[in-house]
Design brief:
Blueprint lengths: L1 H16 L30 H4 L5 H21 L22 E2 L3 E2 L3 E2 L10 H12 L4 H15 L8 H31 L5 E2 L6 H10 L3 E3 L5 E3 L1 H18 L4 E3 L7 E3 L5 H33 L16
Parallel strand pairs: 3-4
Antiparallel strand pairs: 1-2, 5-6, 7-8
Helix pairs in contact: 1-5, 1-6, 1-9, 4-6, 5-6, 6-8, 7-9, 8-9
């Protein structure tokens, strides 16, 4: 039982902190493009000296006009240039981020200086959770955790060899996927709660630590009001129940070198489900704690100053 919990703890911790990917980023909806009332041919209405009927005028003025037209048209039509008021190609989906903890681990549901941001739609909630859950680094990480589980012979009913390893790999992946979607997509969508973490960034270490820990029990609703975090508490409980009672091993007999008929009790018990639930909530608490202080760590590592809420002045490059 203890070894099984150790592996579950590692799997949950990996889901949040060992993610890194080349994931496809959804585009933000384009804003309104520059008004078409601005006629690119306006430069043609030049001064009388420029419009004097001279044989040389067309050859000298036309290039300038064409250059200006090219600049305007280039903003609107050239694929290599981002139009004013639109998002860059690598911009994250609206209301989420493209941040990564320690420059590698997906942190897409955390916002610094969130303030009053529009709520995520159901589609956006599922999309951003899928981006983090199925991040390419997840797959080798699950393989690594399954290797540890195999070495420790956790959940011995799976046995050893490639068959046992395959079962442990699938179980590790399933635990991560089910918990992520339950606590961050399904329950938030049903209960109209916001799965994002809004960093405080105010006060001292104790104040910010207390704020981070409290987010396990307190969250923001889609209405913007503070609510009890039903999504985390009941979402993780549901995930623990599904994990424990659906695909984890039942009681069985296995053959070992010393005992050809060794009885292995079932992992599908209420005690095991409660232990998994408590482990998941504890790891989520630790995750949020790291998310609260990661922007400060990031700035110290990259030597960038803090961006104040509502500031529109870009930070000069070092």
């Amino acid at each position: 039982m203890g070894e099984s919990l150790f592996i579950k703890v590692g799997a949950r911790l990996a889901t949040w902190f060992a993610l890194a990917s080349l994931c496809t980023v959804l585009s933000v909806a384009q804003r309104t493009t520059p008004s078409s009332s601005q006629d690119p041919s306006a430069p043609a209405a030049a001064t009388p000296q420029e419009t004097t009927p001279s044989q040389n005028a067309p050859s000298t003025q036309a290039p300038a006009d064409n250059d200006k037209k090219g600049q305007v048209n280039g903003q609107e039509k050239t694929s290599g240039t981002t139009p004013a008021g639109t998002s860059a190609p690598d911009a994250p989906p609206a209301g989420t981020s493209k941040d990564r903890l320690f420059f590698a681990l997906p942190n897409f549901l955390s916002l610094e200086n969130g303030g009053k941001v529009p709520p995520l739609t159901t589609k956006q909630k599922f999309a951003v959770v899928a981006r983090g859950t199925f991040d390419p680094v997840q797959f080798p990480w699950w393989a690594f955790l399954a290797s540890i589980s195999q070495a420790n012979n956790s959940e011995p009913a799976y046995g050893q060899g490639w068959e046992g390893y395959g079962k442990r790999y699938v179980t590790t992946a399933a635990d991560s996927i089910v918990e992520n979607f339950m606590a961050q997509a399904i329950f938030p969508s049903m209960l109209h709660q916001d799965p994002r973490f809004f960093q405080s960034g105010k006060g001292g270490f104790v104040h910010r630590s207390a704020y981070a820990v409290s987010r396990i029990f307190v969250t923001r609703g889609d209405s913007g009001r503070t609510q009890f975090n039903y999504s985390e508490i009941f979402g993780s409980a549901t995930a623990a129940a599904i994990s424990t009672f659906s695909y984890h091993p039942r009681s069985t007999f296995v053959s070992t070198p010393t005992n050809p008929h060794l009885f292995i009790p079932s992992d599908r018990t209420l005690e095991n489900a409660a232990s998994v639930w408590g482990t998941q909530v504890g790891l989520d608490t630790f995750t949020i704690f790291l998310k609260e202080f990661w922007p400060d760590i990031h700035r110290k590592m990259s030597r960038k100053p803090r961006v104040q809420t509502g500031s529109t002045t870009p930070t000069p490059a070092p």
